[in-house]
Design a protein that fits this description.
By secondary structure, the chain is mainly α. It contains 2 helices and no strands.
Amino acid sequence: MRFTASQRAHLPDLDLTAMIDVIFLLIIFFMTTAQFVERARAELDLPKER
């Protein structure tokens, strides 16, 4: 669908700043939680096989 010049004037401008902030926070959250999971897994002592 093509928009004419008059239709483009009525389209709202999207402010992506808030969405970019949320994406960066999610990336930081998953990076830090992944590091904690790796450390917890490394210190696990399993029982020996019989």
